[in-house]
Amino acid sequence: MNNSTPAIIFENLEKSFGCLQVLKGISGEVYRQEVVAIIGPSGCGKSTLLRCFNYLETISGGRLTVNGIDLSHPDLERKKLRQLRTQVGMVFQQFNLFPHLTVLENLILAPCQVLGKTRKESIQLAGFYLEKVGLFDKASAYPQQLSGGQKQRVAIARSLCMNPQIMLFDEPTSALDPELVGEVLQVMQQLAAEGMTMVVVTHEMQFAREVANRVIFMDKGTIAEQGPAHEVLTNPQSDRLRAFLSRLQREWQTSTN
Ligand SMILES: Nc1ncnc2c1ncn2[C@@H]1O[C@H](COP(=O)(O)OP(=O)(O)OP(=O)(O)O)[C@@H](O)[C@H]1O
Ligand SMILES: [Mg+2]
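^ thats the input. predicted complex w/ adenosine-5'-triphosphate below
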């Protein structure tokens, strides 16, 4: 594996839950230092695809390789799984912070327990990333004392403490009040500018247009259209994508009126 090998490669990837086929044999790749936005209607399989990328779901068919680790089989060795979990960070819509731990304790837990760092090293690391997301002064606060935007920035800092090579984001701003969305997108934009490989499921079309290199539009478990973000979003080729974008635009206009 070298730098030109894609960070994520999937070929004819299928995922079914019982008799429901959610991903219908899709293929693609994410290159290193690339930011890929995944868009598409509710239920089309965006979260499922993202969850396959860090083995929260096992695939039902096809092939999947993430950071050189073959995830095509349902019997991944524990050692490889641990490797994957340190190399791939994931940020969810609902933050998933531990409510009974302070911000600092949330951040140092995995570096101490998974990476085997000392408490002192972990605190230093946590301080660095809290500073990066602009929340150094919140180290001793509890999650319930933070706004949604602050919680999500803590969740991002917590992921970064593992020094991941790939970051997956599943609608990181959709649980936030509109006025808090910007601060989270700004942190993500900075990460992208620093060269992080990112896959972002999002409904934020402006973010996708400005920050993503490529957009994948999914519909009913397939990739219906993909290409450079600017082209796909300003000049959609398929009727399905045109309809999806104009529906989003209408919803956005209604919510801001
Ligand atoms: N663990 C599961 N068991 C059974 N069905 C599931 C499971 N997870 C997802 N599904 C189904 O798979 C389909 C795709 O779900 P998924 O969460 O990937 O969609 P999505 O594109 O992320 O939608 P949204 O935009 O609403 O988040 C849905 O029909 C969903 O009900
Ligand atoms: Mg989803």
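Residues 239-256 form the longest helix (18 residues).
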